[in-house]
Amino acid sequence: MDMFTDYPWQIWGVYGVIIAAITGYVLNRIDMALVSLCAVIALLALFQFFPLPDATGTPVVTMTSILSGFAHPALMSVLALLVIGQALYQSDALNAATNMLTRYGVRHPHLVLLGLFITAMLVSAFLNNTPVVIIFIPILAALARRMDIPTSRVMMPLSFLCILGGMTTLIGSSTNMLAAGSAEASGMDPIGFFDFALPGLVLAGAGGLYMFCAAPFLLPNRQEDDNDSSDEGNTGGRQYIAQIHINARHRLIGEVITAGTTPDLKNITIRSIRRGERTILPPFDGETLMQGDILLIAATRQTLAETLKSRDGIFKSLINVSLYAGDESQQDQLSLTETVVAPGSRMAERTVEQISFYHETECFLLGIQRRHRMLRLPMDDIRLKAGDVLLVMGTRDAIQGLRHSRDLLLMEWSTEEVPDNNKAKLARLIFGVTIVMASTGLLPIVVAAVAGATAMVLAGVLDVRQAVRALDVRIYLLIGASLAMAGAMQETGGATLLATSAVALVEGAPLPLILSAFFLLIALLTNVLSNNATAVLFVPIALNTAHDLGVDPMVFVYTVILAANCSFLTPIAYQTNLLVMAPGHYQFRDYIKLGLPLLLILWVVYSLFAPWYYGLV
């Protein structure tokens, strides 16, 4: 009992706040942002009314220290990387890579994903795992969209596998290097690059096998929450009528129609061909497309949107002439949306040509959908009716202007921005430089990430509004609150109390049991504190424990390194978990559901392997 009376009672208040916050996160009955705010307020109130002074009378925990987490480098890094990820999506910078992967992924989706995961895991052993996750997030996100796989099925495995790969070498994780530095500062010999590689590989192998077997069953399926769809906005397989003008130097000239389509018109069906005064109707297999042809096509909104992403592709001439009208400054602000012809609309019973749709709305009419009917007339000759759904594209201002139209009802939930790949090369360059700076250590990750995000805005890949929209306030508050709780736990001595109490509980037990308990304690605590703080806290305890037991202290130091990497239970446990939270649309409890069995498996494997490997039995 004397051990507990040596610590201030405020520790129990901090424990209470942490337990209440984690309970709120897991139950998910209150918004995560509100739970985070309540936790911060509780800590502020606790130490405002019951300050904890040090030997000189200065408060140990202050308002400044509690709120400092909201300006922490880790927080700034994550937010900046979210902006960079949005820029890569907005510019369609990874289109070439995802197209190549999609070609194989459509036929062998599981094989492609397995290859990407194994590659990320291997690279993480030789490159800090945070930049590796940054590299693979946009690739996996784009590939998942193309293959119609929910991002919630791929993002958490990416983070966990990179953490597993990072625990095999000295430079795989910042935690490894920090623990090694702490041990060396205590008088130990420097830790080599592969000194703990074998136990690390055993754990990574066991964890990887669990991920590949269990993840498909334990991960949530939240496709409806993805950025490109919603419960309301999912149009499914609804077909729109659109048309393509084949003018000079068009890429479709000379292509031969087979089964109602061509190689460049994937998932698009040709309904008719207008060639001069003649209309060619199906079947037209073997027909060669010529300059001047006008194709009437049928396709889903998703297919049309994917086709539009290539500004020098199928719709190039149509868009340039009808939409931009010479103002190229508007090309970065294109949006796609759906409107409905209103009852009593002046557009009803008039053809598209009579309406002069672009001059009336400053938007380009891309497609028409009429319930239960498949139209075959050229679009200019189609007579609109009340209830017709029109797929239109225009600048952001033009789309917003449709709000005031009495002729069209704007379905705002269906609005999405069309990526502009004119900035793709520039976005790839900025992204590449950011990764090189961060991975080589030429710049700290936070500096490289913030500089990269700023460069994306200055270069015009994103505007300020798009950059701000990429920031997730839930993640901001979650990180700030978690850092506040972890800081209060360290500064009050709460973390040290847990560590010393656990060591005291197994005192006198067999050596393998002590090592097993030591691993489990660190693995659990690293999910509440930061992994770096856990490593720094436990290295001195590991050295003292090993000295008291008369064993090689490096055995316990390696245990600290491997256990501190078991950050799978919470999104706040490690930076890569936070990076995948927004694109994967995860909730707090999703990490526990997949991560807790993984942590327990690693604990059991290490408890069986380490005593044999280190000769402790």
Please explain how this structure is put together.
This protein is an alpha+beta fold. Helices cover 55% and strands 9% of the residues. The chain is built from 26 helices and 8 strands. The chain has helices at residues 2-5, 10-27, 32-49, 63-67, 73-91, 95-105, 109-123, 129-147, 155-166, 174-185, 197-218, 301-308, 316-324, 352-355, 357-361, 396-401, 424-440, 445-458, 464-470, 473-491, 494-505, 511-525, 531-549, 553-564, 575-584, 588-613, and strands at residues 239-245, 269-275, 278-280, 294-300, 334-341, 364-369, 389-395, 408-417. The strands form 2 sheets. Strands 1-4-2-3 form a 4-stranded antiparallel beta sheet. It has a 4-stranded antiparallel beta sheet with strand order 6-7-5-8. Strand 2 (269-275) and strand 3 form a beta hairpin. Helix 7 runs parallel beside helix 9 (155-166). The longest helix has 26 residues, at 588-613. The radius of gyration is 29 Å and the shape is elongated. It starts with a helix and ends with a helix.
In short:
With 617 residues, the protein is of the alpha+beta class. The chain is built from 26 helices and 8 strands.
Can you give keywords for this protein?
single chain, 617 residues, alpha+beta, 4-stranded antiparallel beta sheet, 26 helices, elongated
